[in-house]
User: Which sequence fits this backbone?
């Protein structure tokens, strides 16, 4: 693409560095901004700048936060001996939305992925192991996504903490609520049979 | 969505104001930026800010430009009596890429669209009419997209300039080069038959 303006070219280039946004989409977005009031572009630029400059990560769970200790970790009503290990803030938001969880989180910041050059030292695993060593955690729930990388990460953490006295669990895999059996993949359906639950418990969950 | 950080929420909100970017995509983009070096976010914010602040529009053709008179309008080798009317800079870039056009452009900045609240006064039509009145234009090529809005805009401009002595034309509509006839829509195929061209001319265009 040849641009008639260096400013435009530069804005399009920087926009196209975002994942899933090619040059054409970037140009469309930038032209849209040019048609909107100048204040909108200013707000976007400021929001991105101050996010990057002032963002903090909770000193306990490593979630994104505006303060040193995030709202969840600072909440006295939360069960601090129950910790759910997740990949990033999106998982925290998803689980919070269920209103079914009253423990704390530990945000790893990604998963072990040799293909992408992400090793254990790039994640907050060491801090999690320290917490376990201090004996403050009663149960650890692994809630990583069900991929090879997720399983690897779970297993790596498990090896480091298995000698300590605590319960470990993973979230249940199975047929989604409302899904038809015939459309489920074999592995999920197989797991949902192996890990079947007493009928009485399922009644309780529905209520 | 409930966010643990106002900074994050704000950045996601501003990002989701862009067309075609919902809250989830915005969150993905913002989290991506957080994982990249801080300099990248700074460059994006700066590029957008200075684009909006310092961008100029060519005083003659209204194309986006860094200078008062854009490169195309300032080029002495260009035929200044031939003007191609287009919607925005993307059309200029597309036509320039063909290397088949040696005239100037007139960028309208959109098309007349009552549905979107865009009237003739929101476009640079008045400036085009002035140019025609000054008698500097020998031929006007309408190269708007072939939609109802595009046709309306063409017709609106045509009505304003029809009493002046100049040639008007529109770009040819027809079967795309390399396309199979059987997959073409009837309207396009019909037009390509009505506006058929002498075989000798088509030989020249191929060479």
Assistant:
């Amino acid at each position: 693409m040849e641009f008639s303006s260096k400013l435009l070219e530069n804005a399009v280039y920087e926009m196209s560095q975002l994942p899933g946004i090619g040059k054409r989409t970037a140009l469309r977005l930038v032209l849209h901004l040019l048609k909107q009031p100048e204040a909108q572009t200013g707000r976007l630029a400021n929001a991105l700048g101050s996010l990057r400059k002032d963002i903090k990560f909770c000193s306990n769970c490593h979630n994104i936060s505006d303060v040193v200790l995030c709202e969840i970790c600072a909440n006295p009503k939360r069960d601090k001996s129950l910790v759910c290990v997740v990949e990033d803030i999106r998982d925290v938001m998803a689980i919070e939305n269920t209103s079914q969880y009253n423990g704390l989180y530990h945000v790893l910041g990604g998963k072990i992925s040799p293909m992408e050059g992400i090793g254990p030292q790039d994640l907050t695993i060491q801090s999690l192991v320290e917490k376990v060593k201090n004996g403050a955690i009663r149960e650890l729930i692994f809630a990583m996504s069900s991929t090879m990388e997720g399983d690897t990460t779970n297993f790596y953490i498990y090896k480091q903490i298995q000698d300590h006295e605590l319960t470990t669990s993973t979230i249940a895999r199975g047929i989604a609520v409302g899904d038809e059996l015939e459309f489920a993949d074999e592995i999920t359906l197989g797991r949902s049979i192996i890990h079947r639950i007493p009928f009485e418990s399922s009644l309780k969950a529905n209520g």
Remarks:
- The domain at 6-54 of chain B is CATH 1.10.8.420 (Helicase, Ruva Protein; domain 3).
- The radius of gyration of chain B is 22 Å.
- The longest strand of chain B covers residues 79-86.
